[in-house]
Automatic annotation (TrEMBL):
Limits of the UmuC domain: 22-203
Taxonomic lineage: Bacteria, Pseudomonadati, Pseudomonadota, Gammaproteobacteria, Thiotrichales
Site (Substrate discrimination): Y31
InterPro entries per record: DNA/RNA_pol_sf (IPR043502), DNA_pol_Y-fam_lit_finger_sf (IPR036775), DNA_pol_Y-fam_little_finger (IPR017961), DNA_polymerase-Y (IPR050116), DNApol_IV (IPR022880), PolY_HhH_motif (IPR024728), Rev_trsase/Diguanyl_cyclase (IPR043128), UmuC (IPR001126)
This protein's record includes keyword Magnesium: yes
Family: Belongs to the DNA polymerase type-Y family.
Subunit relationships: Monomer.
Gene3D superfamilies with a match to the protein in the record: 3.30.70.270, 3.40.1170.60, 5' to 3' exonuclease, C-terminal subdomain, DNA polymerase, Y-family, little finger domain
Main location: cytoplasm
Cofactor: Mg(2+)
The protein's name: DNA polymerase IV
Amino acid sequence: MDYEKIPRTHTHEFLMAKQRKIIHVDMDAFYASVEQRDFPELKGKPLIVGGQPDSRGVVAACSYEARKFGIHSAMASSRAYRLCPEAIFVRPRFDAYKEVSNQIREIFWRYASEVEPLSLDEAYLDVTYTESFNGSATLIAKAIKAEILAETGLTASAGVSYNKFLAKIASDMDKPDGLYLIRPEQGQEFVNKLPIGKFHGIGPATETKMKNLGIHTGNDLRQKFLTELTERFGKSGQYYYNIARAIDERPVRSQRIRKSLGKETTFAEDILSVPELTNILLDLSEQVLDSLNKHNMQGRTVTVKVKYSDFQQVTRAQTMDQSIGFADLLEWIPKLLARTEAGLKPVRLVGLSLSGFDLPVVDEKIHPQLDLVLSDNNLMKR
């Protein structure tokens, strides 16, 4: 994988005028992986999460070891047992999955201006305005994968492209633990060669109907006129017409009540100096306060985040009776930092956030860059 910034080539001037940077993250065998993480004795074994084989239950998820036997989700548990009698069947623990899912979504919000969950284990992220890694969506995806692994012990696959359709397909191209990039100049050729059954949004019944019409690949679909597609497939015809041309203008939509706003930075070199870390956190606090002021927001809780060179991470927080101002942060940032091992252990990242807002704010009403990670370069120029 070539982790370069998606190029802005002159051959795609029209596309680039609207180009976005979209990531689709899909956890690998999520339910089964959580079970294998929490119960190490299950690692390396064919594991099925779902109904018992002597019931009318179905497979909710299965490990990669089980998939080798042809087992897949939505299959009857009785059939899964026949395919692999030595498989281990466990009941789903949805509370555990939801807890991990919330952890993962918090990681998404460190980088994305919009996060659109599709389920507990996958989501679209819009990182068009993210400044981290000089705006490289591929490097951002790599960082997200690394943080998910470090903080949850689970692997994820990510697809990176300029629209949701391509990002979704890309995330499935290199599983497990994959990272696949479809560049703007590759989009049309990629779609042309794609088997019609691999298209997101085309199910088995539609696939059969299309094949009966001689449509087997994206290139075949591209040869059809819009009028024919709408006549055959109704309103979906417009969608098929567009994706055959690698066009998908659907936005990433988030509907989350924001509980905090913050900024953080990763250093080019680890820092041991507490005064230097304090000054950096004060710089971050000014930017956070400025963002809040623009939206007439005030917080009552300040949280300082410190990640050490060994990737261990701690947070320290203080809640106040009144709205927090810069004078409060001048007092409390050194106190919170003193409650960490800063000065004893090298630090690779610090962050500061304010929460406990007087009024909740919905993400889509906030400027898209408000909650993005601060560019490292901005701090290094201090």
